[in-house]
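Thread amino acids onto this structure.
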C-alpha cells in the first residue's frame, strides 16, 4: 500500500510548516521559557516575552482541520530532540486510560537518546464531558502535575464545556491557509512525484479544500492514483470536487455574507448542513449581525415564515416542499434590501437555548423515567401522565411522604429529585 502523501510530505522542521509564523513564535517561546531546548532553536524562534505565554501550564492549539496543528507539534518535537507521546483524546477517553498511557510513557526511559518528552493530546474537543468518565478532569490533573510540556489540539475549544481547560492553558489560534499557499504545496508535491499538473487543476483542488491542506493533499493523491502522471481540470470535473464539511459557525458566516440568493441557497446542499440546528442558531445570531431594527425585523419575518412552512410540512408529510422553506430561511435571511456592510469578523455565540437544554438534560431524563414508570404501571399514555397525573401526585406528596419514598425506591432516583419533579 502506498504511503499516504500527508505523511510522506509532512513538514520535518518548524520552518517547513506553512504560514503559521505567529503560532510558531508563541509555541517556541513557551517551550524555551519553561523547558530545555537547543539554544539555536530558541534564538531563532523564541521571540515572545508576554507574561501570559511564560506562565501558561499548557498550550492549546486551535483551528479548523488541516491547518497544521498536529504537524506543528511533530515538527517541534523533532526540532528540539524530544520524544513525542501522542494520544488522540477522542479515542483514549477515560480518566483511567489517560493516566495509564501518559504515566507509562513518562515513566519509561527512551531508547533513542531524546533530550526530553512532550505530550500531545490530539482532538481534545472530541471528548464528551458527561459521558467520557472523567477524561477532561484527568487531562486537567495531568497538566497541573506535569513536569514535561503538554500541548493539545482542538477544532473548536470555545465550547463552554471546555472552559476549565482553557483557564489553565494558553490558546493559540492557527489560521486557515490561503488558496495560494495550498497551491504552492500541491505544486511542490507534483514536482516531487514527477507529475504534470495543470495550474487550474491545482487551484480547483485548493479552492474546494477551503484552506484544509490535509484534505487538498489527500485529494491530489486520489486524482493521481493508479500511477497517473498528469492532472487536468477535466479530470477533476469527471471525478467531482470535494464537498467540504462546515461547522455551524462557518455555515452562518457563509449565509450572512452570501452575495447572491443562489450562493446562500447552495449551503443547504452541504452534507454538514442541519436545518433544524440552523433555525436555532439563526434565531440567536440575527441580532448579532443585523444591528438595525428594520433589517433585523425583515430577517426574523422571513425566518419565521420558513418555520411556519416547515410546521405545515411536518403535519402533511409533504417533505418534497422542504427545499422551498430552506430557500426562504437561507436566501431570505441573507438577501435583505439595504443590507449593512458586515465587519471582517463576527463573533457568533453558542445558542443559549442549547446551553440551557444541556444543563437540564439530567433533570429531563429523570422526569422522563418517572413519566414512563407511571404510564406503564397505570396503563395510561405518557401525555396523560404529564398533563394530569403528575399534578395529582404532586398535591398528594405534600401530605404523604411515603408516595415520594416509593417512587424513589422504584426508580432509583433521589427522593429530593422526585420532589423537584413533582
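Threaded sequence (422 positions):
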Amino acid at each position: 500500500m502506498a504511503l499516504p502523501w500527508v505523511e510522506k510530505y509532512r513538514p520535518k522542521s518548524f520552518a517547513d510548516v506553512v504560514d503559521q509564523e505567529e503560532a510558531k513564535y508563541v509555541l517556541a517561546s513557551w517551550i524555551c521559557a519553561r523547558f530545555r531546548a537547543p539554544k539555536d532553536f530558541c534564538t531563532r524562534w523564541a521571540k515572545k516575552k508576554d507574561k501570559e505565554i511564560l506562565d501558561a501550564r499548557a498550550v492549546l492549539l486551535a483551528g479548523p482541520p488541516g491547518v497544521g496543528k498536529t504537524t506543528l507539534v511533530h515538527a517541534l518535537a523533532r526540532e528540539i530532540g524530544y520524544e513525542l507521546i501522542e494520544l488522540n483524546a477522542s479515542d483514549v477517553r477515560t480518566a483511567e486510560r489517560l493516566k495509564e498511557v501518559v504515566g507509562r510513557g513518562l515513566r519509561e526511559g527512551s531508547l533513542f537518546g531524546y533530550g526530553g518528552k512532550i505530550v500531545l493530546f490530539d482532538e481534545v474537543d472530541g471528548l464528551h464531558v458527561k459521558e467520557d468518565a472523567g477524561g477532561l478532569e484527568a487531562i486537567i490533573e495531568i497538566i497541573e502535575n506535569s513536569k514535561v510540556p503538554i500541548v493539545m489540539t482542538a477544532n473548536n475549544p470555545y465550547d463552554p464545556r471546555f472552559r476549565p481547560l482553557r483557564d489553565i492553558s494558553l490558546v493559540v489560534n492557527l489560521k486557515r491557509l490561503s488558496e495560494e499557499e495550498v497551491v504552492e504545496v500541491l505544486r511542490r508535491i507534483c514536482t516531487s512525484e514527477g507529475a504534470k499538473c495543470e495550474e487550474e487543476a491545482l487551484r480547483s483542488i485548493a479552492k474546494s479544500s477551503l484552506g484544509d491542506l490535509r484534505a487538498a493533499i489527500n485529494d491530489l493523491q486520489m486524482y493521481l492514483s493508479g500511477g497517473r502522471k498528469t492532472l487536468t481540470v477535466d479530470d477533476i470535473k469527471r471525478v467531482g470536487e470535494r464537498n467540504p464539511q462546515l461547522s455551524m459557525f462557518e455555515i452562518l458566516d457563509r449565509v450572512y455574507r452570501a452575495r447572491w440568493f443562489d450562493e446562500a441557497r447552495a449551503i443547504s446542499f452541504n452534507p454538514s448542513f442541519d436545518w433544524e440546528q440552523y433555525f436555532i442558531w439563526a434565531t440567536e445570531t440575527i441580532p448579532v449581525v443585523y444591528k438595525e431594527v428594520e433589517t433585523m425585523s425583515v430577517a426574523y419575518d422571513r425566518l419565521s415564515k420558513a418555520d411556519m412552512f416547515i410546521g405545515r410540512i411536518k403535519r402533511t408529510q409533504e417533505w418534497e416542499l422542504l427545499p422551498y422553506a430552506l430557500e426562504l430561511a437561507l436566501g431570505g435571511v441573507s438577501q435583505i434590501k439595504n443590507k449593512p456592510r458586515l465587519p471582517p469578523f463576527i463573533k457568533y455565540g453558542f445558542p443559549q437555548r442549547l446551553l440551557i437544554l444541556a444543563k437540564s438534560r439530567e433533570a429531563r431524563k429523570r422526569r422522563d423515567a418517572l413519566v414512563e414508570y407511571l404510564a406503564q404501571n397505570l396503563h395510561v399514555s405518557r401525555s396523560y401522565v404529564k398533563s394530569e397525573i403528575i399534578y395529582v401526585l404532586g398535591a398528594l406528596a405534600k401530605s404523604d411522604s411515603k408516595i415520594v419514598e416509593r417512587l424513589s425506591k422504584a426508580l432509583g432516583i433521589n427522593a429530593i429529585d422526585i420532589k423537584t419533579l413533582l
